[in-house]
Write a structure and sequence with these properties.
Layout (H helix, E strand, L loop, with lengths): L3 H10 L2 H14 L8 E9 L6 H6 L9 E8 L4 E8 L9 H8 L6 E4 L6 H10 L3 E3 L15 H8 L3 H4 L3 H14 L8 H23 L1
Parallel strand pairs: 1-4, 4-5
Antiparallel strand pairs: 1-2, 2-3
Helix pairs in contact: 2-9
């Protein structure tokens, strides 16, 4: 067996682009890169250390990284991760929507579902006009009438959308739950670069575990 430092050095030096290609490759291996491709986008937090909550509460907030935010693009029919984006600072969900879909690289004709935190006209425009897909994102502020809602695609969502498609989004939370249950919700790495690699390797391990169970 190799010494643990060998594995650490490998994880630190492996290119992130290679890990992104590996994640996308699982969906291709399962034969789901087609017009029926349904992607769910959602985010969840991982603890940046094993420190107890009592200890972290005793420190000044500026000295504590409360969580590592991880946004996933998941192929919902087989629950395989196609792309991810990690972030350490608090930002709006919409900021990571485009980067995570760029990593997933879906084919034209795909469908993406996300919660109302991703409700923005430029999100719909990116999915429909640039990627050739269709987005199901519930609009915020339902009390505002359609004629006062800004954006062509947001007005369309207020007019109605498929609840059956949107309910598939709950599988994103299932994927997060399985990853945290099998591999823990805390990070062992300390550097930003190695934390990104650790998350990517966990997701690769999850995809391999999932693909074995469904074949």
């Amino acid at each position: 067996m190799p010494h643990y430092t060998t594995l650490q050095k490998f994880a630190a030096r492996i290119p992130s682009e290679l890990l992104d290609r590996v994640l996308r490759g699982f969906a291709s291996e399962a034969g789901r890169v087609d017009a029926s491709f349904i992607i769910g986008v959602d985010a969840s937090g991982f603890r940046p250390s094993k420190a107890s909550s009592y200890y972290t509460r005793s420190l000044k907030p500026r000295r504590v990284r409360r969580y590592v935010k991880c946004t996933l693009a998941v192929e919902l029919r087989l629950q395989l991760v196609c792309g991810f984006k990690a972030r350490r600072v608090a930002r709006h969900d919409v900021v990571d929507f485009r980067p995570v879909l760029e990593k997933a690289r879906p084919e034209p004709g795909f469908i993406v579902v996300a919660d109302k935190g991703y409700d923005a006209e430029h999100v719909h425009e990116y999915v429909r006009e640039e990627l050739g897909g269709y987005a199901v994102i519930p609009p915020r502020h339902l009390e505002v009438p359609i004629w006062r809602t800004r954006g062509r695609y947001r007005k369309e969502m207020k007019g109605g959308y498929s609840r059956k498609l949107y309910n598939q989004r709950s599988k994103d939370e299932t994927v997060f739950s399985v990853v945290k249950r099998l591999m823990g919700e805390h990070m062992s790495s300390r550097l930003v670069r190695t934390q990104n690699r650790e998350l990517a390797l966990r997701l690769v391990a999850y995809n391999a575990h999932r693909l074995i169970n469904i074949t």
